[in-house]
Model the fold of this input.
Amino acid sequence: MKPETQSPAPRHGNPFAGILWGILIVLLLNGLVFPMFNPRRISTTDYGTFIERVDSGLVREVMIKNGQIYFSALNAEGKTAAYQTGAIDDPRLVDRLLEAQSPNENGKIAFTRIVPRENSPILNFLLMWILPGLIFYMLWRQASRSLQARMGSGGNVLSFGNSGAKIYADSDVKTTFSDVAGQDEAKEALTEIVDFLHAPAKYAEIGASLPKGALLVGPPGTGKTLIARAVAGEAKVPFFAMSGSEFVQMFVGMGAAKVRDLFRQANEKAPCIIFIDEIDAIGKRRDTAIGGNDEREQTLNQLLTEMDGFDGRKGVVILAATNRPESLDKALLRPGRFDRRIQMELPDLEGRKAILRVHLSKVKHEAVDLAIVAQATAGSSGAELANIVNEAALRAVRQGRRKVTTADLEESVETVMAGAQKKNKVLSAEEKRIVAYHEIGHALVAVMQTASAPVHKITIIPRTSGALGYTMQVDEGEQVLLSRENLFNRIATLAGGRSAEELVFGSITTGASNDIEQATRLARAMVTRFGMSEKYDMMGLETVSNAYLGGDNALTCSSETAADIDREVLRIVREAHDKARGILTAHRDILDRAASFLMERETISGEEFMAIVGNRDIVG
Ligand code: ADP
Ligand code: MG
Ligand code: ZN
Done:
């Protein structure tokens, strides 16, 4: 699901409307000056044929107009038809016509010449000179007006026309805190702001001024934009929403003008909320590097000035959202500006259940086991959960059902996480065998290591994401702290797929590339960030920036150490690989049984797998 749109964008006149008008007028004029032809069917002949017809007495009527001769004559079937031919300067034409026989009742050809009406010289002058000028003027007016609208009312670089940018306030926001599930800490922090907006006088009486601004910080899709709207909806005040990128304009100074405009209009409407989404677009740290962005810095300066300038007791609250807080300019974050920082985190198990509940309440559904879905979606954001519910609803519709079921949700979790099922992709029997062993390898290693989470589902149905099969592990309860053993076991589990291939087929395939990537990343983090290698003890060797957007790692050590880190990582990965192989060798019988069961079924549940592991009978 896409983030909600914020405020209605300012509408400007469409420059094409002007052009269309122009074309229309030209067409109309054309019609006046050059009358259009009668659309009747007229066939063209040559002059010789015309004379021949006249002489043979077939012609009924002749009309000469605009250098063309139009005539009607009997055709081969004896019917009257219309013809046209170019007029030739023929002095004998009139004599011929007078002399010729005709099928007309009086035996004479009827002929006329139509003289085109000459326009008066004044009209000609108007049409040729004044009208085009007028049309161009109108086009230019249209174009400049829309340009003006786009540049904002502070159009001091090019200023023509007179319409200023209007920043629309949404004065009737329907979103409330009940639409935002979980995020209780954030709601609590914002409740005070809501209260303040309800009754600013209460605070002014004591002399307290509330924070002017609050910064919503968190990974994408955690509901920052949503909660900002909810604050406006709860407080029932106008909501000025703009995205940071909207301030960054083509001309230096325009962004600053827009900021001024925004604050002026907000001040008039106080109490109200100004919301600047994705503020990092303008609030990025100013730096001295050459090629700094003048426009952005001016806009930021203007924002800082405005935030200092306005009276905090009047009831204008500024909310801003970002997922790159560390990139923001320090000046923005100092007290008196965005001095409150509200953290929006990825939801935990309870949070996910709550979010699913909110979104499920918008679709028709049967009794759904939320716990299963919430458990299977560890690490998903609110936006992803909303998407999962919607996908489930779409699936229900596709299958002609009226209500969403747990199965729909489970399937859509997989669709969102691993792509849709690829129905027509057929694996050869041998490939299927390899994939089955690979996946069971993961699952078996996971289960045999007590610290690892049990398996929820194993499938070997190819997915559009390119996965040929996968093993879904379930984190029971949220683990915040991971021990070294946890991490190591995870790496061993990742190595389980490849290990099974080695053990059973004696050869290896490309199927493990993703496992290898993940395992290496984990092992590297253990060494460089978590201080989990004996050799480097608690030395930090890497910094992570941009944590909310995947994270960019930068080594902070010498190149010798970097080379040594690689060796250390390799040691961990190799150890984990050995462990995985050991486990699978020890439980080869289970591996074989589970793999053949999976090959037969294509998808098996965690319970079925546990039954095989526990050597119990499987029913059905
Ligand atoms: P952000 O601005 O943090 O990137 P949004 O506020 O745009 O995320 O969230 C996108 C969508 O995800 C919302 O419109 C909503 O449908 C859903 N969503 C996110 N978080 C929540 C939540 N806590 N409760 C309910 N829905 C949520
Ligand atoms: Mg957003
Ligand atoms: Zn794998």
